[in-house]
Specification:
By secondary structure, the chain is of the alpha+beta class. The chain has one domain. It has a four-stranded antiparallel sheet with strand order 2-1-4-3. A hairpin with a 2-residue loop joins strand 3 and strand 4. Helix 4 packs across helix 5. The radius of gyration is 14 Å and the shape is globular. The relative contact order is 0.20.
Length: about 150
């Protein structure tokens, strides 16, 4: 039976220089990956939260080169989730229960900063629709949408 809880968990790890070391996006209930644990790791690893926040959907998709709508959707879902988590880590977002990323924990140890949080799937899906890159989305508002200011 399919799970009705679609909440996603994100874990973002930064090094001592505040550069992305790793991230993982999984379903909260079963722990399964959303497409892949770290679909965009080769594109995002080594970037600062500010660099990730400035990454526009079009630029990401030009680099990632998805083969279809499902890959576009997953890539944007990962981008917006990592941007939301990075906004919390950089202080640009509070990380409360009604924010795109609700911080469950932020731990600093052994030179690493690790955020674990919950991603509000409804907010991420609205960002994807607003982006306009998925052919399946009903809202094709802008083919050159920028990430929201709060991310």
């Amino acid at each position: 039976m399919p799970c009705t809880d679609v909440t996603e968990c994100i874990e973002v790890v930064l090094d001592a220089d505040d550069r992305l070391v790793s991230y993982a996006l999984r379903k909260r209930t079963c722990g399964r990956a959303v497409g892949a644990d770290a679909l965009l790791d080769t594109l995002l690893t080594g970037k600062t939260p500010a660099e990730i926040a400035r990454l526009a959907p079009d630029d990401l998709l030009d680099q990632y080169r998805p083969s279809g709508d499902i890959e576009v959707f997953l890539a944007l879902k990962h981008l917006f989730a990592v941007q939301a988590a990075c906004a919390v880590l950089s202080g640009a977002a509070p990380g409360g229960p009604h924010d795109p990323c609700a911080a469950a924990s932020i731990v600093c140890e052994a030179g690493l900063t690790r955020l674990t949080g919950l991603i509000r799937v409804d907010v991420v899906h609205e960002e994807i629709r607003a982006c306009g890159r998925c052919a399946g989305c009903t809202s094709m508002q802008s083919a050159h949408a920028q990430p929201p200011d709060r991310l």
